[in-house]
Design a protein that fits this description.
By secondary structure, the protein is mostly helical. The chain contains 8 helices and no strands. It is elongated, with a radius of gyration of 18 Å.
Length: about 150
């Protein structure tokens, strides 16, 4: 595992797509790959049975050791990291623009400033039948412009 992949694992955790134990296992994969230090090794040695209690307080030090930014779970910073992960997936073709807009509306809503445009675009997709002159390709183009902004 590479540091960038671990960053994505943590972003998936912020999106509530994976568990605390999955983050611990990913830290173990980092150690096996030779990317280690005291904080990463401590995180990797966390009990999977108690990961929900033990992992969050250790994560900040491990991320700092890896040169990555840390955000508490459930905060706007963490939710923004989840949004950027999904934008990277969309840019890589792993997620369709319409799926991203739907995910943003359902998971983040418009309460996160970075997500407002994408949440709005989900509504644009859902009302295409009532908006002559606006096609799905037009909305896809707008979503991808926002994706590029989020990933730059």
């Amino acid at each position: 595992m590479k540091v960038e992949e671990f960053r994505d694992v943590v972003a998936s955790w912020h999106a509530d797509e994976i568990t605390d134990g999955d983050v611990v296992q990913a830290a173990g994969e980092l150690v096996v790959a030779g990317v280690d230090g005291p904080a990463v090794s401590t995180l990797a040695a966390t009990s999977l049975q108690h990961a929900q209690e033990e992992m969050p307080p250790l994560l900040g030090d491990a991320l700092g050791e890896l040169g990555l930014e840390h955000h508490e779970h459930g905060t706007d910073g963490g939710r923004t990291e989840a949004l950027r992960l999904m934008a990277r997936r969309t840019l890589a073709g792993q997620m369709a623009p319409r799926e991203l807009a739907r995910w943003v509306r359902r998971k983040l809503g418009s309460s996160l400033p970075e997500a407002e445009k994408l949440a709005y675009m989900d509504g644009a997709y859902r009302t295409l039948d009532y908006r002559p002159g606006l096609s799905e390709a037009d909305v896809d183009f707008q979503v991808m412009a926002e994706v590029r902004r989020l990933t730059s």
